[in-house]
Amino acid sequence: MTVYDPVRHRVLIHGGVGRNTQEMFGDMWELRLETDPVWVRLTPQGEDPAARFRHTALFDGARNRVLVLGGLRAIGHGPVEFVNDVWEVSLEDSPRWTRLQPAGDSPGDISTRAILDTRRDRVLLFGYNLELERNELWELALSPALQWRRLEVEGEGPITRFDPVLAIDPYRDRLIVYMTGIGQAYEVTWHEAPAVTGPAVANDAVARAPTAARASPAGDVLRFHATHRAGAVEAEIRVPSSGELSVEIFDVAGRRVASRSLAAAGPGMVRWRSGGLAAGVYIVRLRQGQATRFHRVLVL
Q1: Is 114 exposed, middle or buried (0-12, 13-18, 19+ CB in 10 A)?
Q2: DSSP collapsed to 3 states, the chain
Q3: Is the pLDDT of residue 220 over 50?
Q4: What does DSSP say about strands 24-32 and 38-42: parallel, antiparallel, or unpaired?
Q5: From CA 109, how far away is CA 63, in angstroms rounded?
Q6: What is the pLDDT of residue 103?
Q7: pLDDT range class, residue 20, cuts 50, 70, 90
Q8: Residues 6 or more apart from 234 whose CB is under 8 A from it?
Q9: What is the pLDDT of residues 37-66, one digit of tens each?
Q10: Distance of CA 21 to the CA centre of its chain
Q11: Given this model, what pLDDT does residue 268 score?
């Protein structure tokens, strides 16, 4: 699996297969996308997933982690088999693997593709059920608790095994399924409007950061207070010293959706507003000098 971490500007790779299914990998690497990109092997703590390939990885920026789902693995010299487990690797200074235990019946032998639906704080999985010879759509709710649920979809959907490509259309609130090889596209729409879901948000809550915020020489740090608005983030930022203040907003898929550099005549308060945002949970990254802070905000 391959996933992009936009906060740290790197690509993460886990697992894979060599010349045959007897040569599978379970190691994890990062490609730092600097001026001169460099490969670095990562060794997260904890029990790690079994070696596998054709699994799915998703960047969950709201929780500062990567989710790893399913895939194929081989036992000894036997045939490959499906796995439907769920793992997370935290993106802290010391990454750690943790196996997650969602409630409910999980998908069976399904060759899946997955995507993060941030408006409903869930993972959507679409794939072909080998036993029932049909495509299925599943959701893995991420809050308030991990829960598997198969979604019953009305209408006639794709019936082929060709690997799908998934995309979320946030403006029309739909899932797009494109079947490669045959060039057909389908949409899945929802009867109900999304509830405001996602990780709990407080005005001064600090998201788990990849590096701890470093205090200024005076012992103060950046402080952040957000007011929840429709389509916007309004914030008061207390800065410990004068100097350029960088403000960036990422959605929970890790895409940077807004950024700005402010001249701060600190110590003091800086007021800032960013509009034109869809409803959902966002990560705000503040940087001034050697100080870095991460915060979660909710846009209504």
Answers
A1: buried
A2: CEEEECCCCEEEEEEEECCCCCCEEEEEEEEECCCCCEEEEECCECCCCCCCECCEEEEEHHHCEEEEECCEEECCCCCEEECCCEEEEECCCCCEEEEECCECCCCCCEEEEEEEECCCCEEEEEEEECCCCEEEEEEEECCCCCEEEEECCCCCCCCCCCCEEEEEECCCCEEEEEECCCCEEEEEECCCCCCCCCCCCCCCCECCCCCCCCCCCCCCCCEEEEEEECCEEEEEEEECCCEEEEEEEEECCCCEEEEEEEEECCCEEEEEEEECCCCEEEEEEEEECCEEEEEEEEEC
A3: no
A4: antiparallel
A5: 28
A6: 94
A7: low
A8: 226, 227, 271, 272, 273
A9: 889 999 999 998 888 877 888 998 888 899
A10: 28
A11: 67
Structure tokens at 109: 């032998």
Looking at residue 50, its amino acid is A
All domains of the chain in start order, with CATH: 2-189 (2.130.10.80), 223-299 (2.60.40.1930)
Lookup: tokens for 157: 């959907």
